[in-house]
Amino acid sequence: MDVKRCGSVAGMYYELVPGQNRYGFGHSDSEEFYEIPDWESAGGYQGATIHFLDFDTGVVSVPFDKKRNVCYGNPVYFDAFIYFLQGDFNRKEVLLFKYLPEKSCECVCRLSMKDISLYNLCLVAGDQIYVVSQERQLAGYYPVRFECPLETNESIVCIEKGRLYLNAWVEEGIENERITDQYKYYEKLIVKDFQGNVISEEIGTLTLFPNGDWWLT
Predict the structure, then answer these.
(1) Which of 53, 65, 68, 211 makes an SS bond possible with 24, Cβ 3.0 to 4.6 Å?
(2) pLDDT digits (tens, 9 = 90+) for 108-167
């Protein structure tokens, strides 16, 4: 078997950065942003690193050394750059970075943790890169601020030209909490404005493929 080896073999699992097929990413630890404050009573969080693997060259890039109380979110690809969030719990800030391995690393914005929710804090691509959190509502923090009511079965997929593209799971054929022979599971694409008004909805799952195309499947 022909096995390729990356420049730094460390037993780390890599998955594709969404929206392209050249770079993979991996985390040294799996803690989410909202979980880090729970470590304060135990003396603080050990810290994590984010790694990027170039599948063309095999080179592994680590933009920042491990630092106590610092963690990272999952990256997205947009306009020929990789974007990712860094949570710095020493400074109580979340930073958005624009990154290209071995070439550039630029801080795009800083958000104070007192002004945002850390729950399901993530990046969403579209016509720009958006920083949002998802819980009982979808809250946008960068580059625009908004708050949109969110149903428990809805999750944001894309934001473009003032429209929120949400995938929503649907279950039918359940009676008295029991699954019947008529049971069906499927997903719908729901489009809303920033105020939560429904613009359209249809059956299908909106998915971004590695070549950058959006498919409704």
Answers:
(1) 53
(2) 999 999 999 999 999 999 999 999 999 889 999 999 999 999 999 999 999 999 999 999
Enter the tokens of residue 87.
Answer: 């949570």
- CA-CA distance, 6 to 130, in Å (whole number)? 31
Q: Which residues contact 1 (CB under 8 A, 6 or more apart)?
A: none
| CA pair distance 71, 53, nearest whole angstrom | 18
List phi, psi (to 5°) of 114: -75, -15
Tokens of 127: 């016509």
Q: Name the β-bridge partners of 24.
A: 16, 53
| SS3 of the chain: helix, strand, coil, percent, to 5 | 5, 55, 40
Q: What is the CA 113 to chain-centroid distance, rounded?
A: 18
Q: How far is CA 111 from the centre of its chain?
A: 16
Residue with tokens 């933009």: 63
Tell me the average pLDDT across 23-42.
Answer: 92
Rounded to the nearest 10 degrees, how much is the dihedral formed by the CA atoms of 153, 131, 116, 108? 170
Q: How far apart are CA 76 and CA 81, in angstroms?
A: 9
Burial class of residue 125 in the structure, from the number of CB atoms within 10 Å of its CB (0-12 exposed, 13-18 middle, 19+ buried): buried
Task: Take residue 68 and report the two structure tokens written for it.
Answer: 């106590």
